Amino acid sequence: MSLVTWTNTVNKEGVESLRPKGKPGRRGQLTDSVRRKLEQDLEKSPKEFGVGRHHWWDGPSLVEHLRNRFEIELNERQAQRWLRELGYDRSRHRPWDYIDGGYDAVEGKALEDKVEKLTEEPEKAPKLLPEKT
What we know:
5 helices, mainly alpha, 133 residues
């Protein structure tokens, strides 16, 4: 709304007209309780729930998981939006672990934790480039 529109609305309907009104349409399926449970589930591999073909979450694996665990029906594109809304972009929810060379779902160690540890102990970091002489 522009300032002129707001001013005209207040003049016609009073200050109460500026208060937010209910949104039209049906309520979303991602309730607070489903969100909390889903965030915990996304920290694990989809294989632990018997869904998906990979060790990372993608649209199809999330659709199957939501159907099985929460009885929520979504299409694949909406599931991808939920992943992004929950903070899982394509680079974050993939399990590539470039340091150890494999996915570490059992120990639950994230790549970020390993990078942080290596920055604390640089002498243990692998030498990627030859040292200058």
